[in-house]
Design a protein that fits this description.
Distance between the termini of chain C: 40 Å
Helix content of chain B: 55-70%
Order of helices and strands of chain B: HHHH
Radius of gyration of chain B: 20 Å
Distance between the termini of chain B: 49 Å
Number of helices of chain B: 4
Number of domains of chain C: 1
Order of helices and strands of chain C: HHHHHHHH
Chains: A mainly alpha (about 110), B mainly alpha (about 120), C mainly alpha (about 230)
Strand content of chain B: under 5%
Oligomer: heterotrimer
Shape of chain C: globular
Radius of gyration of chain C: 23 Å
CATH topology of chain B: Helix Hairpins
Largest sheet of chain B: none
CATH architecture of chain B: Orthogonal Bundle
Strand content of chain C: under 5%
């Protein structure tokens, strides 16, 4: 019985990881891709590890430490990526994510 | 359809996807990602070939005592080769990225169509 | 158009070859003779529980030295391609004053860097007891340096001292090999040091010493490569 629950949890985690990959592929902008990539992969990793913990209860302490590390490092790295993307775009290329649409709409309506 | 069948098929599929990426993409960074994918796929294939039915990792500890090591351990030689291969793959990716930086500095674009005239 | 057609034909042919490989594959039911000999010889003669590290650092140690030479050549090549004397290409990206990092990254790095360094030392030292060894630990050391570079933009990796440390580690690996030649069975034989008790930290002869030297060398090389990519 615990085998079944553990396997289903791992499968749901794999579905989340697949949706993260699909989101990174289909999203149009860098910020949206970072958004899809970090939230879904963190949850997918956590669910896979929780599923393994249900499957083998003797490993649960080590897996809890791994989940802690994943929760510590994944958001920090995505924050660093988003900060870098914002800074570089602010200096080099105007993008439609930062208010350029309003300027264009004003020019069109005149 | 056993575990090693699934792992072997995944590795071969990753190699095919990597080769597709190298052949069809025009952005230099995507070509480098294709090389990395092909390398990862080949590492998975190397390790999957060495699997023994119902085997476990070749490390002698509580889970695998010395007396039944020869009967239940997985082949250790492909795993050792895979360690070497991963390090070499990392080194090759680093050199390719350095080349990509210099190419971008020369032509200010990341598409390899800009270098088509330097093929001859 | 021709390029796409040629690529499609090549991919179909490769797919057919891979399919025949995958369909004709049958799992082994017993170890091949060489692997069985290794699995049985490494705990008995070398005293190392981890068979893979025992193979990599004693029976096939010459391949490991070759791989160390390849990493050294790559570090030298990247020093040539991205080294000093290169003009900054884009004036908008001129890094005369580096971009300050945000508070989240700085505080997160303050917590994570000691943990990552401790984990790297653990992987290198326990290479012969569990999964790990020189190469894996060296990569974790380089990731620690990368985190320091991200969190503190005015952190300068000392290239001169790292190069000296890396070269010294390489020299000591060859000296350990020659000690194996003089005092034990052959080049890089790890039985120059006593085998000790099976499964403890100070056992398996010279394998932990070789792991530490290898981890130092690989960590220094990868840190030098990362520092070159930064500037």
């Amino acid at each position: 019985m615990t085998d079944l629950i553990g396997s289903i949890t791992v499968l749901i985690g794999a579905v989340f990881l697949f949706s993260a990959g699909l989101g990174m592929f289909r999203m149009p902008d860098a910020m949206s891709r970072i958004h899809a990539g970090t939230k879904a992969t963190t949850l997918g990793n956590t669910l896979v590890l929780v599923g393994i913990a249900i499957y083998q209860p003797t490993w649960s302490l080590k897996l809890l430490v791994i989940i802690y590390f994943v929760l510590m490092t994944n958001p920090i790295s995505s924050h660093a990526l988003a900060h870098a993307a914002y800074t570089l775009r602010g200096r080099l290329v105007p993008s439609r994510a930062f208010g350029e649409d309003d300027a264009r709409d004003q020019n069109d309506s005149q | 359809m056993t575990i090693s069948h699934a792992v072997l098929t995944t590795g071969l599929l990753l190699m095919l996807i990597g080769i597709w990426g190298i052949l069809t993409q025009r952005n230099i960074l995507r070509i480098i990602i294709g090389f990395a994918l092909m390398g990862t796929g080949s590492h998975i294939v190397i390790v999957a070939v060495g699997y023994v039915a119902n085997g476990t990792a070749p490390i002698i500890d509580d889970a695998l005592p010395l007396s039944e090591a020869a009967a239940r351990a997985v082949d250790p030689v492909p795993s050792a080769l895979a360690v070497t291969a991963i390090v070499i793959g990392l080194a090759v990716t680093a050199v390719m990225l350095a080349f990509a930086i210099r190419l971008y500095g020369a032509k200010k674009t990341l598409s390899i169509d800009a270098f088509a005239d330097s093929k001859w | 158009m021709m390029r796409r057609a040629a690529a499609a034909v090549l991919l179909l042919a490769l797919g057919a070859i891979f399919a025949t490989v995958a369909l004709d594959f049958r799992e082994r039911t017993a170890l091949p003779p060489l692997a069985e000999a290794y699995v049985e010889m490494v705990p008995r003669e070398l005293g190392a529980p981890n068979v893979i590290t025992g193979i990599l650092l004693s029976y096939r140690a010459f391949d490991t030295i070759g791989e160390v030479a390849v990493l050294f050549m790559v570090a030298a090549g990247i020093g040539l391609l991205l080294g000093p004397g290169r003009k900054p290409e884009d004036p908008a990206l001129d890094e005369s004053e580096p971009e300050p990092s945000t508070e989240i990254v700085r505080n997160g790095a303050d917590i994570m860097v000691p943990l990552i360094a401790l984990f790297a030392v653990y992987i290198v030292l326990h290479g012969h007891l569990g999964p790990g060894g020189g190469f894996q630990g060296g990569a974790v050391v380089a990731s620690c340096v990368l985190l320091m570079l991200l969190a503190r933009p005015d952190y300068r990796v000392r290239l001169a001292q790292l190069s000296v440390a890396e070269s010294l580690a390489g020299v000591f690996i060859v000296l350990a090999g020659m000690a194996g030649l003089v005092f034990a069975g052959g080049f890089l034989d790890s039985r120059v040091l006593p085998l000790g008790e099976f499964g403890t930290l100070f056992s398996a002869g010279a394998i932990p010493v070789l792991s530490v030297l290898l981890g130092t060398k690989v960590g220094c090389e990868l840190s030098v490569i990362i520092e070159r990519f930064r500037a």
